Amino acid sequence: MGPAVTDGSADPRTARTRARLRAALLAACEERPLDRVGVAQVARGAGVGRATFYLHYDDLRALAVDACAEIVTRAVDALHAWDGAPPGPDAPPAPLGALLVEIEARAPVYRSLLSEGGGGPLGELLHARLRQRSLDELRARRPADPGQDLTASAVAALFTGVLADWLHGRTSATPALLAARIWRMLLAVHATARLTDGTP
After folding, report:
1. How much is the pTM?
2. Is 124 in a helix, a strand, or coil?
3. By the 8 A CB rule, do 124 and 162 touch?
4. Confidence class of residue 69 from pLDDT cuts 50, 70 and 90?
5. Where do the H-state alpha helices sit in 47-106?
6. CB of 11 within 8 A of CB of 47?
7. Which tens digit of pLDDT belongs to each residue from 127-160?
8. How many CA atoms within 13 Å lie on the side-chain side of 16?
9. CB burial class (10 A; 0-12, 13-18, 19+) of residue 98?
């Protein structure tokens, strides 16, 4: 299996080729769903041959996971863009709203990579990374609390699922309104978990 994140390649030529392949895939996903994109189309868009494609990735899904890595990192960071105590329910982190504006602007791409229900390469990677980041934060801030794995799962599932529904038109909101609603729901998850665990 090809590497999930390849920007750190020690070979500049390898890094450039993979960057072109990621860009070509994202461009293709602006026109059609991922399951209708072919290796030949992506290789042609990147200016390389099919053999070169397979030197870097096992298949299109491996490339898609790599192409999603940057937006996933930014999404996870946006949900944790605060120091000390998290902001209140009326003040979602500013990077979250900005990220949603960008995602909306390229909705066809992200809709192709994040399937309904939160699946697809983007959904799976986002859920996994967000769950791990949430779990790490909980363990660092409240190491004695039980049920942290469940809380982290709820956070990851909530954000990934709501984002997918928004992109697929199941819910309607501006990026700013969506950021505010998501933030309130995430705070509610944490508050409920503390009450359930008996934590003041």
Report:
1. 0.86
2. helix
3. no
4. very high
5. 50-56, 60-78, 94-105
6. no
7. 999 999 999 998 988 877 788 999 999 999 999 9
8. 5
9. middle
